[in-house]
Amino acid sequence: MKREELIKKWLDNELDSKELELFKNLDDYEDLLRISNSMRYFKADSYDTHVEFEKIEKIIEVKQKRNWFKPLSSIAAVLLVIFGVYYSFSIQETEVSTLASQKQTLELPDHSSVSLNALSSLTYDADEWDINREVELKGEAFFKVEKGATFHVKTASGLVTVVGTEFIVKDREELFEVICYEGSVRVNHNGSSILLKEGDRYTYINGTSGQTKTTQENPSWINNTSTFKSMPYSVVIAEFERQYGIAIHLEEIDAKQLYTGSFIHDNMDIALKSITLPLNLKFSRTNRMITLKSE
Fold first, then answer.
1. What pTM value is reported for the model?
2. Is 74 helix (H, G, I), strand (E, B) or coil?
3. Sorting pLDDT into bands at 50, 70 and 90, what band is 179?
4. Pair type for strands 247-251 and 289-294
5. Structure letter (DSSP) for residue 242
6. What are the domain boundaries of the chain?
7. 69 pLDDT above the threshold of 80
8. CATH match for 224-294 among 3.55.50.30, 1.10.10.10, 3.30.565.10, 3.10.129.10
9. How far is it, in rounded angstroms, from Cα 162 to Cα 27?
10. Termini Cα distance of the chain
């Protein structure tokens, strides 16, 4: 059996007893074994196979002049494979996602809980949780954080930092919103650091930020209702589409007009009336498409 085949089967733990003896008789068996053992203690923050291979090739070019090319190139190839295999298994991130009209509650390693709204996702590293309580959020989630080390919520729009509290983070296409229901929350957004206390609400929409108050004890969507106060109609429509998994077409309607009201998540006909009657709109429905227009 060729040397390369032996090494490949060794890496895949597929050597039989006879092949194992052949592998042990390789000239660089001890070097290969040391590389494998050292990888158990190797922790890679980031690894680019192409870049690392180029580095190894440069080393080989230098060593080749000293007739070290064959053994070194063999070890380099094995090292590259082990690095790649180790790194692929060292990233143990957990990702939880929801579909349209779906909500989900999960428990983090420290027993903090997260409720995800429709079309949202949460990613975190369970293996690193004891030293880094950090999650990455896309969409909207309600957090109940156990006291402990600093807790971070990373979004594309900003960073939310807390110790132990209840709050909501919403990062949608045109709206970034953080509401603190208990304790305090620090929001780092657009170069500013804002401290929110219980009942404080921070919003950033269409290039404008502002702070208001809320008397709610938790987000309304936890109870299958979406509530809005002076929000652009486009935000309302986008949330309706997420909750019902349908598409809405606005026909000659100003999507920037403000809407105050709510709609439920378990009856589309009633929900449609809730978002159309206050604005004197009418609707028609064809399969999964709803058209809204003025009366």
1. 0.69
2. helix
3. very high
4. parallel
5. H
6. 3-90, 93-213, 224-294
7. no
8. 3.55.50.30
9. 56
10. 81
